[in-house]
Design a protein that fits this description.
This protein is mainly beta. It contains one helix and eleven strands; from the N terminus they run H-E-E-E-E-E-E-E-E-E-E-E.
């Protein structure tokens, strides 16, 4: 830590010296520093909100979210809202982890809404061009592709509100299913 502090001070002094030296020879340059680098490809899927019918389970990592869906008392479908970010083309897949069922019926997922989050100021130009795999997708224990799309974010981080897509999935539980655990993952296309 002590070495790093002195190294930073030396760097600043050298930069100031170079600027002063250039000015002494009649040049009016203040100098510049260029940092070049590459951002690693990455995707992120976050549960945007919980409710009495949607709760987060132990996560599967930055690109995946496990949720528990509870049947509402009126038997209606359950909306689950996510925020999706990524700097590469992607797939969103889902699979049913478990279900408290008598008959073995499984959940059905459909895509209800895809929109720019918080105005979308930092969305990539093609972010809203997504391909939905099917109108209604029957879940099973193997991952099923729900949708795919192009790069979402132009810049920012997982804390930048306007570089994400808001995606709402609607989950339909069969009549004899009270609770189902689903895993949603966002995967970088290769």
């Amino acid at each position: 830590m002590h070495f790093r502090k002195h190294l930073t001070t030396v760097f600043i002094v050298v930069a100031l010296y170079q600027t002063t030296e250039l000015s002494a020879f009649g040049q009016n340059s203040l100098g510049s520093i260029a940092i070049a680098g590459r951002v690693s490809p990455g995707v992120s899927l976050q549960l945007a909100q919980t409710s009495q019918n949607v709760s987060s389970l132990a996560g599967t990592g930055g690109a995946g979210v496990a949720v528990r869906i509870r049947r509402p008392s009126d038997g209606s479908d359950v909306a689950v809202r996510f925020l999706a970010r990524g700097n590469v083309d992607y797939l969103i897949v889902a699979q049913q982890l478990s279900a408290l069922v008598q008959s073995g019926d499984l959940a059905v997922i459909s895509v209800a809404e895809i929109q720019a989050n918080a105005g979308g100021g930092n969305l990539a130009t093609s972010a809203l061009s997504v391909a939905i795999a099917d109108e209604r997708i029957q879940m099973n224990r193997s991952p099923a592709v729900i949708l795919s799309g192009a790069r979402v974010s132009r810049r920012g981080s997982n804390l930048t509100p306007d570089n994400a897509l808001g995606i709402v999935f609607v989950v339909h539980l069969p009549t004899d299913v009270e609770t189902a655990d689903l895993n949603f993952q966002m995967l970088a296309k290769r």
